[in-house]
Amino acid sequence: MKTLLTLTATLALTATAGATSYPLTLTDDLGRKVTLKAEPKRIVSVLPSTTETLCALGLCDRLVGVDDYSDFPQQVTKLPKVGGLYNPNIEAMVALKPDLVIVSKYGKLVEPLTQAGVTVLAINPETYDEVFSKTLTLGRVVNREAQAKQLVLNMRRDIARVEILTRNAVRKPTTYLEIDPTPYSVGPNSFMGVLLTKAGARNIIPASMGDFPKVDPEFIVKANPQLMLGLDAKAAAGRPGWNTIQAVKAGRVLEIPKELDTILSRPGPRLPQALRGLARLVHPELFK
């Protein structure tokens, strides 16, 4: 409790800020210098996490288009869709006459949009700390610095509340979290990996493998996790050698509910909800 109160008090002192001055020049996640001549009023978001962050800052009404996967909050589902990361509709984006398009650092959107005269900013949080720092960057870009600082404060506070529950858990199971059946997993320094640790689990994936590594199935067999998340129990048992894994034998192979899986994959303002849902899977006894 003392930690939570200290965190709240410290961040509250920084929850005020002046207005952003334009023109504003900043370096995006592709290392490009991007200049915004004025406060953006017509924004296209090509990342669900960015869409959610902008709406959390009170700027849903400035969105004129979103990617195919942006579905939260409900009101963005009525906006024009502009494709996804690998199937973007450049013409649709340009037709919306945006003064800013916010994209991932992956994909090939920057060059064609820039050639069309559109201002493009690549913001792509991947680590836990970047979720907060990029939220503050977005706040600065859209002249909502104070709101962004308050949002970060609220997120950290809600995360701390879950940590209070999980920190003293009697057992912290060794855990394998699968995000794709290839199989891909999460390293401890990725935003999902940090959430897994905060949920009271011990990740079997070492930092040396990277943030979102493709994993040799034999490595998982040798690691012999006590808990497996993100895959079907029957499918897991059917993989070569996996029927010997502790989690499979003990019936501790758990699918992640669809809504939680969606939230968990988005490094945005619903990070606390993702953590709480993950903690419920790892330590259901703490939430009875």
From TrEMBL:
Q: Does the keyword Nucleotidyltransferase apply?
A: no
**Fe/B12 periplasmic-binding domain span:** 42-286
Q: Which UniProt keywords apply?
A: Signal
Sorted alphabetically, which SUPFAM superfamilies does this protein's record hold? Helical backbone' metal receptor
CDD domains given for it?
YvrC (cd01143)
Q: Which InterPro entries match?
A: ABC_Transporter_SBP, ABC_transptr_periplasmic_BD, Vit_B12_bind_prot
Residue span of the signal peptide, if any?
1-17
Q: What processes in GO biological process is this protein linked to?
A: cellular response to iron ion
Q: What is this protein called?
A: Periplasmic binding protein
Originating species:
Deinococcus aerius
